[in-house]
Amino acid sequence: MKLNRMHGFSIRSIIRLEIRWRYNHMSNKVLKPKKASLYQFTQNYSNNIGNCIEFFKSMKWPGEFSCDRCGCHKYYLVKRVGKTKTSYVLECSSCHKQHSLLSGTIFQSCKLDLYKLLLGVFLFLNENKGISAINLCSILDVNHKTALLLENKCRILCH
Ligand SMILES: [Zn+2]
């Protein structure tokens, strides 16, 4: 089963791999086996939106942020409060182009807050055979359709 191939890879490596693939950047970096603990995960990300943002930012821009219009490395973080979720964009401090944290990645249409998204992906990828949409529903407190979409995206990450 293909899912087994990713067993032991860190969530960070997998998401980075996917995002790089979407951006047509190939990486020869060897993925090191690493399984994270749920305790450590919650210590790092629960009630810490700054760390969640930093996680997705470092996935999309390994190293440092770079504006794709002018190349500037400085940005302002802009919070967008929507009906279903709060999202964040990085606005270039030079040309003011706004860069979504998730656009261009497999999660760009995701209707989950960053922490819920990260937790769902973590739970899925940290299990050998993933986690079912039913379980994601109750753990993340989301409806079945949202959980199913997330589960499907996680499965794509594993292929
Ligand atoms: Zn710019």
Automatic annotation (TrEMBL):
Source species, domain of life: Bacteria
Residue ranges annotated for the Transposase zinc-ribbon domain, each copy included: 51-98
Pfam families linked: Zn_ribbon_IS1595
Matches recorded under InterPro entries: Transposase_Zn_ribbon (IPR024442)
Protein name: Transposase
Organism: Faecalibacillus faecis
